[in-house]
Write the structure tokens for this entry.
Amino acid sequence: MNTKHVYTFGDGKAEGRADMRDLLGGKGANLAEMNLIGVPVPAGFTITTEVCTVYNQQGRDAVQRLIENEVKKGIAGTEKIMNATFGSKGETFPLLVSVRSGARKSMPGMMDTVLNLGMNDDAVKILADKSGNPRFAWDSYRRFVQMYGDVVMGITAAKGEHNPFEAEIDKLKKQKGVLNDTDFSVEDLQLLVERFKQVVKDRTGKTFPTDPWEQLWGAICAVFDSWMTERAILYRRLEQIPEEWGTAVNVQAMVYGNMGETSATGVAFTRDAATGEDIFNGEYLINAQGEDVVSGARTPRAITIEGSRRWAKQQGNITEETRAAHFPSLEETMPKAYAQLNAVQQKLEDYFHDMQDLEFTIQDGKLWMLQTRSGKRTGAAMIKMAIDMLRQGLIDEKTAIERLEANKLDELLHPVFDKESLRKATPVVKGLAASPGAACGRVVFFADEAEEWKAREEKVILVRLETSPEDLRGMAVSEGILTARGGMTSHAAVVARGMGKCCVSGAGDIEVDYVNRCFKIKNTTTVIREGDWISLNGSTGQVYSGKIETTAAELSADFETIMKLSDKYTRMHVRTNADTPRDARVAREFGASGIGLCRTEHMFFEGDRIKAVREMILAENEEGRRRALEKLLPMQRGDFEGIFDAMNDLPVTVRLLDPPLHEFTPNDLPSQQEMASEMGVPVEKVIAKVNALHEINPMLGHRGCRLGNTYPEITEMQARAIIEAACNLKLKGKNPRPEIMVPLVGELKELEEQTRIIRSVAEQVFSEKGIRVEYLVGTMIEIPRAALTADQIASVAEFFSFGTNDLTQMTYGYSRDDVAKFLPVYIEKGILKNDPFEILDKKGVGKLIETGVSLGRSTKPGLKVGVCGEHGGEPSSVIFCHKVGMDYVSCSPYRVPIARLAAAQAALRYA
Amino acid sequence: MNTKHVYTFGDGKAEGRADMRDLLGGKGANLAEMNLIGVPVPAGFTITTEVCTVYNQQGRDAVQRLIENEVKKGIAGTEKIMNATFGSKGETFPLLVSVRSGARKSMPGMMDTVLNLGMNDDAVKILADKSGNPRFAWDSYRRFVQMYGDVVMGITAAKGEHNPFEAEIDKLKKQKGVLNDTDFSVEDLQLLVERFKQVVKDRTGKTFPTDPWEQLWGAICAVFDSWMTERAILYRRLEQIPEEWGTAVNVQAMVYGNMGETSATGVAFTRDAATGEDIFNGEYLINAQGEDVVSGARTPRAITIEGSRRWAKQQGNITEETRAAHFPSLEETMPKAYAQLNAVQQKLEDYFHDMQDLEFTIQDGKLWMLQTRSGKRTGAAMIKMAIDMLRQGLIDEKTAIERLEANKLDELLHPVFDKESLRKATPVVKGLAASPGAACGRVVFFADEAEEWKAREEKVILVRLETSPEDLRGMAVSEGILTARGGMTSHAAVVARGMGKCCVSGAGDIEVDYVNRCFKIKNTTTVIREGDWISLNGSTGQVYSGKIETTAAELSADFETIMKLSDKYTRMHVRTNADTPRDARVAREFGASGIGLCRTEHMFFEGDRIKAVREMILAENEEGRRRALEKLLPMQRGDFEGIFDAMNDLPVTVRLLDPPLHEFTPNDLPSQQEMASEMGVPVEKVIAKVNALHEINPMLGHRGCRLGNTYPEITEMQARAIIEAACNLKLKGKNPRPEIMVPLVGELKELEEQTRIIRSVAEQVFSEKGIRVEYLVGTMIEIPRAALTADQIASVAEFFSFGTNDLTQMTYGYSRDDVAKFLPVYIEKGILKNDPFEILDKKGVGKLIETGVSLGRSTKPGLKVGVCGEHGGEPSSVIFCHKVGMDYVSCSPYRVPIARLAAAQAALRYA
């Protein structure tokens, strides 16, 4: 732990730097850096993330003892630079400050902020006097009481209750007969402050604090507290941010966008966050504070003329004259400040070499930057920006790859609306194209109910006036999100983009009626009710009633460029899990360099095959089984021919029969009767067989190579089908590369025995066909014991493929089929950080994998090692696979590009 | 590999020694040693075990090339000493030899032997001439052809066929009208030799070899081949003898017990192998070869007068006169040879310091020793001999301990069948010897009815397809348990062993018919009905129809001495797995130094408890659960008071609730209806709950600390019951030492959370009671991930107890309940050497245990580590536990003595 806990900045100087984000958080580090490169930033200081840890462990008093002097010095420095006094009694301008969180990684909207801190009955008067704008002063005061009351003193609405501060505002509006906040007079605002203080007194029994220092410590601690709120914990889990990181606290002099018509506030992006186009864009509001832009209470306007015109065009019926008169851009209303802002945005992007998400305030014509950070973006925008910046020479190839979020490629790979189906669809309303993609689902109005519907396997679209962090889990389970309010930077828009989820925001023409669970389209008779199907196009903002079919996405040239770049830097190959020629072709198009897992049993269910399989199961003896297997042989051979053909020249790993035989028999009486009559046996025989096959724990039962070792004739048939198929293709001039994989090996002798059978069948086939093909025999490593004895197993295996699904089941002792009974509680309580079936557990399962790889290679130094299973397409797991020295990962076809990128990133990171 | 492959011996000289048994096998090493100490042994030589390995890998030709010269030298040396010629043409006495196997560890009867080798048409004549006993010569010849034809040329009876040589003998007997072999004339024997040769010709197409050298090489290779026969492989598996050891081959000059009435052959033991008494005993036959004694074709007689008299007494109606006349002892028939033999046996026992099993031949009045080895003995004899020899100063304490076979103590701890009664019994089927002892009772098929029958003072045997926790009380009142399914570690087996109750499990040939209340034996007409008497031998797996009387085992003073000696040398403690005060007391009597596993759920089934448990399960919310748990609290507390009292001053490890909740709900509709009416809820609710609790793989499901972490109130109740019980006892002046064990931990946070709850409850109880007790909180290590992350887990755990049952399930991916579907085939095929649930797998599971222990102690150097589970009472597993540095093992009460002895042996072996 450092002995310095507070880093000051302001007036072109700073104790921190951009590369100190671990200590100062992203916001604090960038505030410091902006100072150093000459961007105008209000003075202030950052309390380090280390203090957050002290707070969590030792509490408020310890923190106050630890940093009190440094905070005092920080305030003194800020006072000096801003020429204002904290707790001024009138002799000077009062110093008001903002107190904001700032973690290493941005967690937008997740933690608390207090603005206008330092305000009290003295300060408001001086502010009113000195600014000559009493309305502004009193408006700031009432905002402060409301915000501090909420954030620090914990006054929020009970369930079903209206927010008590908002209730006071509504009451006063009615009393005064005014419509908007901005219509309140100074006296009204003074009254509101009094009523707000009374709310605080009523609700907490405490008097609202007037001492700025007391206010400050309260706010600092509240920010630290907000690190541990449920929503913050949830968000961290989704984004995999460690709890230990903690948040920094930024205390910064207030500047005022609400000081009148020459003041404004806004947010901006140096490029288009949705498309990636190199167009400066953003939104602003005159005479407002930052929260107004984000909350959606007033609809913000575009910063640039271009953006403003595009907006007007989207609205459909706004002429250029109307636009210029009523919805002018910042470029038009404050051209000088705009020019300054434009220069700053350029400077910041050039400096940080990345698209920046900016917050700014214009106070009485003067621009202040409040924040810069790398902006969130859609997958498509991410790709385009990286390639554009690479072409523009802003970044090099490695940086282009490293910067990408592999998981976001997923958005580009997902289906879009089928054009034919789309043509027939009825557009009912349009909103902002907040997060791209196509989504289709049933309307639900409440986040918790979205979760319930999803639990019933319903696809849902969450429709809200606007979203808040409480809706996060509901959003996560929805296909898409539609909101009536809020712009491109609203909560719904930002979060949806982060999740790679389709979102249409600010569809102002919908009237959401929570009570009757429906929404109406203004000026029409259209009513859409809970449970109705709607479809959203997040790339255009269109909303359709009904269900629209979707089709696969088309990939851009930039996407291809990224993939080629990835392959240039990667060390690992990416294969795919595919059981059919069709899947194999899709994956090949996505760049798969082979099949890592072809599950033969998936072929057992189709058409007549299941009949032959059941014949085999019912057979009384080996002879009967062989007779049934004879029938399966040509079908399996045909399947393999198709797959080897689709994957010509590339390796294809075929896994021998894996599931327990009872998966092929029916469990209900009618189906058993049907099976009996099909097989020509009494139903009692079928029932007896089903009972005999029953297992208490099928996952740990008679399956995998335990089948092949108890019924070697199955292995013989499968080996024959594979080798015959390969020979047939080779005879046609093709180049099949079969790799035969024995599943569920836990003991060397199991593999020895299976290998012996396979090789002996192969030799027979070669001599029958008069031709040989190269092939490998290897094994899945999916049983803990296989990893622990991998040195022995490698003496026989020609390759290892880690089956991380089963390995995770057995290493944790979790049945994937049953884990839902406790895993959600475990995630909720933080006992587990992630679902280990989704994200590979590096500590436990990973340790077994490392053991397996290194033991295997201790016996056979060049042993080919890969992974198959869900984790092969999950970026952090792919990176782990690289680190332990695997040769390839294998994943579902649609995740192949993600794995390719992640593999390249791993290669760069651990070069 | 040594360059010397053949070791000669004879005439008081030998190239080998007794301590060379790895190289020469037990027989060869002892033949050498007997020469060196002056015991008369026919000359010969030993081919080393290393040659067997060469044979298995490279075949006959390679072996012949390798050792031909050495074998020739060996024969030449033997010729010289015995003054005879191999392949004599008449000038000298012909040298005939025996060719016998000899592994490091005795495998009696498992491998092949050829006697009288070297015999041919020349030799027989010379032998007839020189011995003056043509009958003996021709008898030897026909024996040789028969034996060589069988062993070397592979002529055996086909299925259902009579042995072809025996058929010739029978034919000739009929022709000649004689009854016994001994009645054949010389001509008959000559005819027989001719016919035998014809059999060989007919069966193999080959002429019987006349060249002694050809005969010799054939026999040597046949002995090597017999190392790999099915029965030898099976025996090695049972006795855990590695295949790599190989067998030596002993070629030794024949001496002839069948040279007439002054010749004899026999076997003898230096002490009584059944009782251990220090009485020389054995059996012999006049005018016979060794095989006659063993084969049972003629009834052998006792060597000593004492033995002979005892035998006569057992027969009941043989007077001393009759005995002396018709069944005289060797002591009487050949007093001089007997005196020699008696001196030799004394010399050998004194020399080897152990009871010897001897083979001897008296040729024309001269004694020859053919073999000496440590004799097999019963458990009782083993103990008595060790203690006797210790007292006699033949061995020291350490040797006494090291020599014992720990597993054999088991025989002494359980009731046994009365021998007389057993002789009359009919065995009907065989299952696994799941829990030793003998039991006899009337067949009952339902656990509740077992209780009813027991209440009527009936002795019952509970017969089930398999048992479940619901059957617990029924099992407790039964004399023994018989199941159709499940292995050595099935529920029935484990529980029965824990109860010290006889159990035969997995008797796959019985077909249980619950409806008609009977069971059938497959492929027979035997039907056994409810109420019929059956008897089980849990030590052999035999099931008998009818009643066999049993007698209780009594523990001897010698047994106590052995236990005390063990404790003197041991390092590990031995605790017990016990769930009731009764079990605890039994175990304490057997010397348990605490309870290593007290399964709290076993208490949940009794009386009203199951009702409260079900109430908890049906509760809609935490409040409802708490209400039900309130009812359980006093009952659990009472149980713990009883156990802490029984184990006063000793540690008691209490495991928190482990099984999934569905084990407490009934599965069939009638029981569900009963439960519903008992609970006062509609049956639909019960059914819905049962369905909701259903799991695909319950073994990997919602159980262990996953219950305690999802329903913390269960942990709270159990912690309270334990701590309150401990406080109550302490208030009474007792010294309870609770150790609370959290089951199924796989992730540190699971344990942290449970520990937090336990400690907080404990503090509450302490303050309520105004007293404190010392207690520990630790965890089972039974999930692979727990072992892999043991360094983290040890930061919280105060002790580790390896749950090797579950750890084995997950490390192998074997469900104990289902493993019977393939494990027998795996053992049969040699894929697995042992059932890993019976004998701890050192390579895989053991590696995880070692990892867990060393990681755990890397965090907490003094960490207390033990094992609970079936392996804690299995000697080789106990030795492993010692080697990895465990502090204790815990096993079922009846295995405590075995574990104590094994622990002492481990301490001596790895001092």
